[in-house]
Specification:
The protein is built from ten helices and four strands, in the order E-H-E-H-E-E-H-H-H-H-H-H-H-H. It has about 210 residues and is of the alpha+beta class. The chain is globular and about 50 Å long.
């Protein structure tokens, strides 16, 4: 398999975590998003959206969209499972994952942040405030759920990391990059720390990737 991705991309990080948890080997292919390499003809031939990641299977199939890739990997290699056993539990985990992937990430990804600056003409201060606002809105709701729902354990659901954790951790790391105040979210911080103690999360982290920049 080949993973076409970028070290700092939170969606790419999700897939790298899943690959590491599953113990699946892959070739790392980097595209520098800030240089626009994902909009070049070579990458657009793989993914017409021009977004990372794209997983290229051993058979040559091309899979875009991080959550679709993660669920494909979970079906390809069922152990360890990334979703719990019952339909209700799986729905809960997906709802937590989607709160990050569908409600925070789409308004805070790189192309949106770049659009705020050019052509809309806002400066970096406004860009940062935009990012922090949407993280605060959604993290407040996530914190309430994770702190009050009995299914929360060491991780988002029980005592084994899964799909929700795979989505949460990259968002926390991005929040730290943008100086988000994490003080109001002790449960999120606790879960993040528990995840980073798992080798798969640490090995997949942005700073550990071959294209990482300081």
């Amino acid at each position: 398999m080949k993973l076409h991705n970028y070290f700092r991309s939170s969606t790419s990080y999700r897939v790298r975590i899943a690959l590491a948890l599953k113990g699946l080997a892959y070739d790392y292919v980097a595209y520098h998003l800030r240089k626009g390499e994902q909009r070049g003809a070579a990458y657009l031939a793989l993914n017409p959206q021009g977004l990372v990641p794209t997983l290229e299977t051993d058979g040559g199939a091309l899979l875009p969209q991080s959550l679709a890739i993660v669920e494909y990997l979970d079906e390809l290699q069922p152990d360890p499972p990334l979703l719990p056993a019952t339909p209700l539990e799986r729905a809960r985990v997906r709802s937590l994952a989607y709160a990050v992937a569908c409600d925070i990430h789409p308004v805070n990804n790189l192309r949106v942040l770049q659009y705020l600056v050019a052509p809309l003409g806002h400066d970096a201060a406004v860009q940062g405030e935009w990012f922090r606002h949407w993280v605060a809105v959604e993290f407040a709701a996530l914190e309430k759920r994770l702190s009050e729902e009995p299914e929360t354990g060491r991780f988002c659901h029980g005592d084994r990391p899964g799909l929700a954790d795979i989505c949460l951790v990259p968002q926390v790391i991005n929040g730290n990059r943008f100086d988000c105040d994490m003080t109001p979210y002790p449960t999120i911080r606790r879960i993040h720390e528990a995840c980073m103690a798992v080798p798969a999360f640490a090995e997949a982290a942005p700073e550990r990737q071959p294209d990482a920049e300081t």
